[in-house]
């Protein structure tokens, strides 16, 4: 079973990009998933609401993969 942070990151990407959750894995790149700036803003907002973690959309893009976003949130979650 995946942790709540992984599940939430995958859920937000899935609902924003219209990609089935089961096809989103930690090693998938954001480019491969079609993440755009609007989706990145939505993801940042959701991470703030759910976990108290602030990240700018530019930071999300620099992370590059789903797994790196999860690692970032886990290291900063309140």
Could you name the key traits of this structure?
78 residues, mainly alpha, Non-ribosomal Peptide Synthetase Peptidyl Carrier Protein, Chain A, 4 helices
3D architecture notes:
It is built from 4 helices and no strands. The protein has one domain: ACP-like (Non-ribosomal Peptide Synthetase Peptidyl Carrier Protein, Chain A, Orthogonal Bundle), CATH 1.10.1200. With 78 residues, it is mainly alpha-helical. The mean pLDDT is 90. It is globular, with a radius of gyration of 11 Å.
Q: Low-confidence runs (pLDDT<50, min 5 residues)?
A: none
**CATH topology annotation:** Non-ribosomal Peptide Synthetase Peptidyl Carrier Protein, Chain A
| Average of per-residue pLDDT values | 90
- Assess the beta-strand content as a share of residues: under 5%
The helix content, as a percent range, equals 55-70%
CATH class: Mainly Alpha
Put simply, the count of helices is: 4
How many structural domains? Answer: 1
> From the coordinates shown, what is the CATH architecture?
Orthogonal Bundle
């Amino acid at each position: 079973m995946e942790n709540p942070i992984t599940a939430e990151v995958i859920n937000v990407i899935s609902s924003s990009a219209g990609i089935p959750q089961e096809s989103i894995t930690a090693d998938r790149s954001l480019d491969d998933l079609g993440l755009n700036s609007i989706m990145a803003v939505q993801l940042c907002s959701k991470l703030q609401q759910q976990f108290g973690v602030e990240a700018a959309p530019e930071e999300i893009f620099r992370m590059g993969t789903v797994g790196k976003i999860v690692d970032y949130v886990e290291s900063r979650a309140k």
